[in-house]
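S1.2 Input.
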Amino acid sequence: MKVVISGYYGFGNVGDEAVLVSLLQELKEVPVTVLSAAPTLTAELNKVKAVGRYDFPQVIRELAGANVLISGGGTLFQDVTSSRSFWYYIGLVLLAKIMRKKVMVMAQGFGPLRHWANRWLAKVVLNLVDLITLRDDESFHEIMKLGVTRTPVFVTADPVALLNKPEFTAGKHILSLEGIQTDKPLVGIAIRNLPGQKGLEDKVSRALAQALDRLQAERGIRPVFLIFQNPEDTRESQQVAGLMASDSNTVFRLCRPEEMLALFPHFRLIIGMRLHSLVFAAMSGVPLIGLSYDPKVRSFLNFLGLPEVKIDQRLDVDSFIRELEYVFANETKIKKELAEKIEQLRYKARLNFELFFVLLRSDWDKQAYLCKSLLERSKIAHDEHRANKEGAVK
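S1.3 Output.
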């Protein structure tokens, strides 16, 4: 079996690169070709074959020699960023099906798709694929509303939850190289821009800067900005830092996913807009505050059972302070709950790969039987976990 993987790879986004690393980690016995915006770099860093995502003759050759196209993870089928990116990803899926290849949409978020023509195209093409797994319930509801009825669809989880944890000392070494002292509690901040919402973006920056100043004055913390995508996150981080009356630090190093993950156990708290900053925090057992700018952030916070700070015109410094005080007051409880939740997340993330090997290597009758078995096991595990938790409370 040979697999081609398509996603937002080679653009320097730590979260998406973490998805790729987790896919390669779990598919280590399978020959893989990655479609990348920077194929040489992707190949070098991940020790995998990579070709240019826009080198269409080469893409066609790779698909011709492959058995399966994996589309994912991330949120590829959306037209908020642009319709062109949606057309690219859905076009690859359609091309693979025309070439009679099996296609798995793996661990994706879905939507929003706003234009009626894009919704129609997604409905037609996604009803042709062999398997869809989605990373949250909201994406499942959206794809059901779209009318995807012919393809098996499962709710799993982001595969990043399966990443191997780096050594604790690796994070300490990076902080040292960046000149960041650890004599005070560190608070990590991972923010991003809000395309087309400059006024709201400025409002968020001012409120966050004031909240961080108060946090330093009252709790003696050291703010550390984390760059998940450069230069976008660097600009936003510098804007907030420039509005602060107190000092802050920034990890300017262009971190690989495992390097970024290694930093998180060294933080007392994470304030994140970037989804994978919140995933990394949960994996590391670090209390977090999510700034909800997108349904994917809200879905993840709902799964963790943590409140969100909604990014809208009502946002102010008091919104931040309320959540900060809640987290500090419930730090021990939150850490315990995160440890339980991350085990659930890892279990659901593994289902992506169990389903991949079952559905794409078996005849359809056996596929249906084994899929039912997997779902039953998932439900049993969830029910047992809930019963154990309720028993512990009693």
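S1.4 Remarks. The chain has two domains: 3-162, 168-338.
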